[in-house]
């Protein structure tokens, strides 16, 4: 499944993806084996997936920081 499809099917959820390929800094394409609205709720499924598949990508399909008044570190750190 493509990342945009994962986001459409599991909006604002944590997903565990196996047989994945990185397609961006956060985005992955692959097979979703677990999902849920909070990470703790899918923790046991993630552990099982790790035992069965080895590598598992755990991602959130929504925005992690929503309308924060604090700047993100990359917005204030110097790069030179």
Give your account of this protein's structure.
The chain has 80 residues and is α+β, with helices and mostly antiparallel strands. It has helices spanning 3-9, 43-53, 73-76, and strands at residues 14-22, 28-36, 57-60. It has a 3-stranded antiparallel sheet. The chain is globular and about 40 Å long.
Q: In brief, what are we looking at here?
A:
The protein has 80 residues and is of the alpha+beta class. The protein is built from three helices and three strands. The chain has one domain (3-76).
Gyration radius from CA atoms, angstroms: 14 Å
Structural class: alpha+beta
Number of domains: 1
What value does the average pLDDT take?
Answer: 85
In total, how many beta strands? 3
Cα-to-Cα separation, first versus last residue = 38 Å
Strand order of the largest sheet: 2-1-3
Shape: globular
The quaternary state of the protein chains shown equals single chain
Parts with pLDDT < 50 across at least 5 consecutive residues = 74-80
Main β-sheet, in a few words?
3 strands, antiparallel
- How do the SSEs run, as a string of H and E? HEEHEH
Helix content: 25-40%
Q: Tally the helices: what do you get?
A: 3
Q: What percentage of the residues does DSSP assign to strands (E)?
A: 25-35%
